Amino acid sequence: MIRVLASDGMDKAAAAKLRDMGFEVVEQFYEPEQLGEELKDYDVLVVRSATKVRKPIIDAAAGGRLKLIIRAGVGIDNIDADYAAEKGIKVTNTPNSSSASVAELAIGHMFALARFIAAANVTMREGKWEKKKYKGIELAGKTLGLVGFGRISREVARIAQALGMTVLYTDIIGEAENCTCEYCRFADVLKRSDFVSLHIPFLKENGPTIGAGEIAMMKDGAYLINCARGGVVSEEALLDALNTGKLAGAGIDVFEEEPTKNLELVNHPNVSVTPHIGASTAEAQKRIGGETVAVITEFFGR
User: Fold this and answer.
1) Catalytic site residue 258?
2) Rounded (5°) CA angle 239-236-196
3) Domains of the chain listed by start with CATH number
4) Measured between alpha carbons, how far is 127 from 218 in angstroms, rounded to an integer?
5) How large is the greatest C-alpha to C-alpha distance in the chain, in angstroms?
6) pLDDT per residue as tens digits for the range 212-245
7) Active-site residue among 154, 192, 229, 287?
8) pLDDT digits (tens, 9 = 90+) for 255-275
């Protein structure tokens, strides 16, 4: 029997479907020092973001049954994918499942910042009525700059245009075909945008994409949204920009360390924060489960 370990859990319907097809599905989280040895007895590992599959784990699992690692989500930066491939283990993801959910969260953070929704929630629960303090702005008529233009970013662009925003974008692969948004150089996106939203992977060897120098290029009073990956933005540089007023606010779903210990950033009055919930909708998890099943069944010819 083909054995599947879902170390960060799995959609119930997806797990049931795999079991009905004759797969054994085990939903169990293991600490890093245990995971590699346990994987010797599994053919497939399914992870979300909590489990990190690094070289020592892959080394410990090598020589066992492990043939496939699936990231139930978009980014695979929590997996040493190239190293796994060298060991004969295929690594894949579910790129089509969570685009709408992450895009809506990015837009949600923009609304929260523009209309002081997060701050007003806190102060009202403290018994304050600060109506005159929260004079916000409308998103309509503002310019949104997108860094990276994959599936999630394109969905953000679609929603933003429906709201009446002008959308600019930049991407390492260049200009997209049949696109109604304006393609720009990275620096021009930063300089011209009222809101900048990031939709790119984090490459540890490259460091943050947005640091002090990049923030300096942005408009005074602009907003930065990161629902991509922790590390893409230098939290130190971001805090400095918020404290000096260079940036009016930031919407953050991902952090350099998770769970984050950066309480100064989390508690900043001009920040809207969520605990890495971009794909945490019922709809996205159902789609991710379905795509995970499809990957496994195709891989094993079922």
Assistant:
1) yes
2) 60
3) 3-95+282-299 (3.40.50.720), 99-273 (3.40.50.720)
4) 36
5) 66
6) 999 999 999 999 999 999 999 999 999 999 999 9
7) 229
8) 999 999 999 999 999 999 999
